[in-house]
Amino acid sequence: MSAVEDRLAELGLKLPQVVPPLAAYQPAVRSGAYVHTSGQLPMVDGALSAVGKVGAEVSPEQAKELAATCALNALAAVKSVIGDLDKIVRVVKVVGFVASAPGFTGQPGVINGASELLGEVLGDKGVHARSAVGVAVLPIDAPVEVEMQVEVAD
């Protein structure tokens, strides 16, 4: 097991299986020294953990936890391409989308769930640039979606 996966275990987390694509795309693609993930939903054991809009059916606190699940799924997608998460040099960019109820403006706090998980698991390698975007709706009524770009070494 890699040091990154050991750290996940210390945090009481386990790297999930890669979430199968919902359409015509790959979960992650490597280009040179970078792996780009597709948007990852908060899927657990093949099902969404919650549905609906943040600030209505889903609380901001729950959505923050869902964003962490998205980041964990993104790490699984990265591993599917590079084989060993210890090859991560750094997380370069995280983009988070929050299906937001009208008037909800707490998108940055929600996406902190992903950012904080990456920091806890990867330390300084998990520090990244980020965008947190509110949207009207996400695929299959997911409350949150996270994608990331990771620099890797051979």
Helix content: 25-40%
* Rg: 14 Å
Order of helices and strands: HEEEEHEHEE
- Put simply, the count of helices is 3
Overall mean pLDDT score?
97
Low-pLDDT sequence parts: none
Bulk shape: globular
Structure in words:
There is one protein chain. The chain has 154 residues and is an alpha+beta fold. Helix content is 31%, strand content 26%. It has helices spanning 3-10, 60-82, 107-122, and strands at residues 28-31, 34-37, 43-44, 47-48, 88-99, 129-135, 144-152. The strands form 2 sheets. It has a 5-stranded mixed β-sheet, covered by helices on one side. A two-stranded antiparallel sheet has the order 3-4.
Q: What descriptive keywords fit this protein?
A:
154 residues; alpha+beta; 5-stranded mixed β-sheet; two-stranded antiparallel sheet; 3 helices; 31% helix; 26% strand; globular
